Amino acid sequence: MYDLSISMVGYTPAVRKDVTVAPGDTVHIEVRLVPTAIEMPALVISASKRPRNIVDTPTSVTLVDAQDLQAHNSVSLKESLDYLPGVNMVSGQVNIRGASGFSRGVGSRVLLLIDGFPALSADNGEIKWDAIPMDQISRVEIIKGAGSALYGTGALGGIINIITRHPSPQPETKFRVLAGLYSNPIYPDWHWASGRRYFEGIDISHSRQAGRGGFVLGLGQKWTNGYRENDWYKRYSAFGKFRYESASSATLTATLNWAFDDHGVFIQWKDRNEPLEVPLQNQNDKTVSRKLNLNLGFYRLFSPRMGYRIKTFVYRTDFDNQVEGRTSSEAYKFGQELQVDLQPSDPLSITSGMEWIADRTSSSDNLFGNHTGLNLAAYAQAELEATDRLTLSAGTRYDRYRTDARPAERRISPKFGLSYRPWEHTSLRSALGWGFRGPSIAETYTNAVFSGIPIVPNPDLVAERSLSYEIGLDRRFATWLHLDLAAFWSRYKDLIEARPDATGVISFRNVSKGRIAGLEASVRASWRHLGFEGSYTLLDATEDLPSGSAPLPYRPRHLAAGSLRTTFGKLTLEGRLTCRSRIQRASGLFPEGTRDLIPTYLVDLSAACALGPVDLTLKVHNALEYNYTTVERNLGPPRRLSLGVSGTF
Question: What is the pTM assigned to this prediction?
Answer without folding.
Answer: 0.91
